[in-house]
């Protein structure tokens, strides 16, 4: 049986992560919205912009719509004028394409906000995939005033989903993932490569950048994600087969926000 509510879970590698299990998808979206409010309000107490990495997928879509509902409980609580939005990954398609993560965020988040210019999308038009990745890396360098590529920029919050094959962002099984975590890529923040499973080129932040965030929040719902979640949190599979295992913020907080269906296969309790 899976316990509902918040707890810590010990992963096979010994790392402890925060796990929050909600009884339903709807309540899980509300829980994620409360976490979004808390994190962004806390970050806004400083003088720097509040930086948020967005995710594609159906659950982030619902979160966006809930947060930006002017009649809802969260809209007025978010310091929207302080937020700057970035993307964890993007398919190499035009911004108007239905597969575009930017298009989804534009329709469910950006167009519904009073402040619309504080976003930094991955440009895919009139560039090659490699040029797109290089351009986004330069964008991050300029925004974060970071000259030394060996030192990763620090996002306040990065939102992630989980695929049924245990991928996250555009870090897919059997793609150049382990290379992205090696010393050879210590100065690589953004990478493009071909994903056979999608039959498409993608542009993605590397694990180095995601793991430098102050907070990483996974949003996972549905029984179709239960096995993938079990593989990430309880199996001994290597990261090349289970890419979400690459995400383990060094100095930041890692939170898994789940509904009971997604968590239905979890059995291990923290000692």
Short overview:
The protein is an alpha/beta fold and 271 residues long. The chain has a single domain (17-68, 81-238, 248-259), classed as 3-Layer(aba) Sandwich (Rossmann fold), CATH 3.40.50.1360. Helix content is 26%, strand content 20%.
Could you describe the 3D structure shown?
The structure is a single chain. By secondary structure, the protein is α/β, with parallel strands linked by helices. It has one domain: Rossmann fold (3-Layer(aba) Sandwich). It contains 7 helices and 10 strands. The strands form 2 sheets. The protein has a 7-stranded mixed sheet, covered by helices on one side. Helix 7 links the parallel strand 9 and strand 10. The radius of gyration is 18 Å and the shape is globular. The model has no long low-confidence stretch (mean pLDDT 91).
Low-confidence stretches: none
User: What is the CATH topology classification name?
Assistant: Rossmann fold
CATH architecture: 3-Layer(aba) Sandwich
Tally of distinct domains: 1
Looking at this protein, list some descriptive labels.
single chain; 271 residues; alpha/beta; Rossmann fold; 7-stranded mixed β-sheet; 3-stranded antiparallel β-sheet; 10 strands; 26% helix; 20% strand; globular
């Amino acid at each position: 049986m899976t316990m509902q509510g918040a707890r810590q879970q010990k992963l096979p590698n010994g790392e402890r992560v925060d796990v929050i299990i909600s009884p339903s998808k709807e309540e899980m979206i509300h829980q994620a919205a409360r976490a979004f409010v808390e994190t962004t309000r806390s970050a806004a107490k400083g003088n720097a912009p509040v930086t948020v990495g967005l995710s594609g997928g159906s659950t982030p879509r619902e979160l966006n719509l809930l947060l930006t509902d002017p009649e809802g409980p969260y809209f007025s609580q978010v310091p929207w004028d302080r937020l700057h939005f970035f993307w964890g990954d993007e398919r190499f398609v035009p911004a108007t394409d239905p597969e575009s993560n930017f298009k989804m965020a534009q329709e469910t988040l950006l167009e519904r906000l009073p402040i619309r210019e504080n976003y930094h999308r991955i440009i895919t038009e009139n560039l090659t995939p490699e040029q797109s990745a290089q351009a986004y890396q330069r964008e991050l360098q300029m925004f974060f005033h970071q000259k030394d590529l060996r030192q990763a920029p620090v996002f306040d919050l990065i939102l992630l989903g989980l695929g049924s094959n245990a991928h996250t962002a555009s870090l897919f099984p059997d793609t150049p993932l382990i290379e992205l975590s090696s010393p050879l890529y210590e100065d690589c923040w953004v990478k493009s490569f071909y994903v056979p499973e999608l039959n498409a080129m993608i542009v993605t932040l590397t694990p180095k950048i995601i793991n430098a965030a102050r907070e990483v929040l996974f949003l996972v719902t549905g029984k179709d994600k239960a096995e993938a979640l079990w593989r990430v949190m309880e199996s001994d599979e290597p990261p090349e087969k289970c890419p979400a295992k690459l995400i383990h913020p060094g100095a930041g907080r890692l939170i898994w926000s789940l509904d009971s269906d997604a968590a239905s296969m979890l059995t291990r309790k923290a000692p």
